[in-house]
């Protein structure tokens, strides 16, 4: 009888230990993109930038802003979740202001002729820009860039330019299920053109951290870490424009980016001599736009 009681007590104790151990384990989340053939995802994108450059006591400020509607029209989804979609920009509203000059403005929805300098952007609106295949982690498997004519229409003689280069055009997701606090990264090579005509290759790492999960939405912190030592301010002045830092909101169940915001605010001294400086401010943000409901649904 005593041995039976002892055995029951030991089993209960082990059960408590096992329960406590399980309770200490943090919840893990599997982050994957999920697409459905025939759907169209749209994000409203806002891009603001200010560059203030001073050279020999002369200062010039350039401010640009654009708001656009980015669309991914999903054409095919394989059983493994790999999806193919057509990427395009439905409309764009752009403004640019330079010191001492009148502001330039172009809104593609007005159908007016774009001012000088905005022609390329105007040609890229309302037409397929690329057909892209990505896996569930967001990695590009195949990319076909589309060519357009000067009036923005599809060029039948050069409809698709195949490109097999791998890469990312959305936030990369980790291979394994992860808990809050988990970090992952991808290597980058940033090419900086030099005045000599050469190109300096900069090694960097794009880092990601799962900061929190609330009501099924993951908040992911994004930052760029430059690995190559930078001693030339001229190189640094270009590099800061390629860095990113901010947060992405990802819907775990639906498998898509709900929104993101990236901000940069940096100064570089001496990029063109001792009496020069440049101040670069940039904000990139986007938010998922809900599809309008069809009458009767």
User: In terms of per-residue confidence, which ranges show pLDDT below 50 for 5 or more consecutive residues?
Assistant: 156-165, 292-297
Instruction: Report the biggest beta sheet as strand number plus sense, adding barrel if it closes.
Output: 14 strands, antiparallel
Integer average pLDDT: 87
What's the tally of helices?
Answer: 3
Helical fraction equals 10-25%
The geometry reads as globular
What is the straight-line distance between the termini?
68 Å
Query: In terms of quaternary structure, what is this?
Result: single chain
Radius of gyration: 25 Å
Main structural class: mainly beta
Number of strands: 16
Strand content: over 45%
One letter per element, helices H and strands E, the order comes to HEEEEEHEEEEEEEEHEEE
Question: How would you describe this structure in keywords?
Answer:
two-stranded antiparallel ribbon, 297 residues, disordered C terminus
Plain-language structure description:
There is one protein chain. Strand 3 and strand 4 (83-98) form a beta hairpin. This protein has three helices and 16 strands. The strands form two sheets. Strands 2, 3, 4, 5, 6, 7, 8, 9, 11, 12, 13, 14, 15 and 16 form a 14-stranded antiparallel beta sheet that branches. A two-stranded antiparallel sheet has the order 1-10. Residues 156-165 and 292-297 have low confidence and may be disordered. The chain has helices spanning 2-24, 119-123, 233-239, and strands at 28-29, 40-55, 58-77, 83-98, 104-107, 130-134, 139-146, 160-163, 167-168, 178-179, 183-193, 199-214, 217-226, 245-251, 256-269, 276-289. Helices cover 12% and strands 51% of the residues. The protein is globular. It is mainly beta and 297 residues long.
């Amino acid at each position: 009888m005593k041995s039976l009681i002892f055995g029951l007590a030991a089993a209960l104790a082990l059960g408590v230990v096992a329960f406590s151990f399980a309770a200490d384990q943090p919840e893990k989340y599997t982050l994957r993109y999920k697409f459905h053939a025939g759907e169209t995802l749209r994000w409203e994108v806002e891009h603001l930038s200010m560059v203030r450059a001073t050279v020999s006591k002369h200062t010039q400020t350039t401010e640009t802003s654009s708001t656009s509607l980015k669309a991914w029209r999903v054409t095919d989804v394989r059983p493994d979740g790999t999806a193919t979609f057509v990427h395009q920009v439905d409309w764009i509203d752009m403004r640019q202001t330079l010191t001492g000059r009148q502001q330039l403005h172009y809104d593609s929805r007005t159908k007016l002729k774009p001012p000088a300098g905005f022609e390329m952007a105007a040609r890229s609106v309302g037409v397929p820009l690329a057909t892209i295949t990505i896996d569930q982690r967001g990695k590009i498997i195949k990319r076909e860039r589309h060519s357009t004519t000067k009036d923005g229409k599809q060029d039948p003689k050069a409809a698709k330019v195949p490109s097999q280069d791998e890469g990312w055009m959305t936030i990369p997701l980790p291979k394994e299920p992860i808990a809050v606090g988990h970090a992952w990264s991808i290597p980058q090579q940033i090419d900086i053109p030099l005045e000599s005509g050469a190109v300096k290759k900069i090694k960097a790492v794009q880092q990601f951290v799962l900061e929190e999960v609330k009501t099924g939405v993951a908040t992911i912190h994004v930052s760029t870490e430059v690995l190559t030592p930078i001693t030339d301010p001229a190189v640094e002045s270009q590099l800061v424009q390629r860095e990113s830092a901010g947060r992405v909101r990802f819907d775990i169940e639906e498998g898509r980016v709900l929104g993101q915001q990236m901000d940069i605010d940096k100064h570089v001294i001496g990029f063109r001599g001792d009496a020069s400086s440049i101040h670069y401010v940039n904000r990139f943000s986007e938010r998922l736009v809900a599809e309008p409901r069809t009458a009767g649904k």
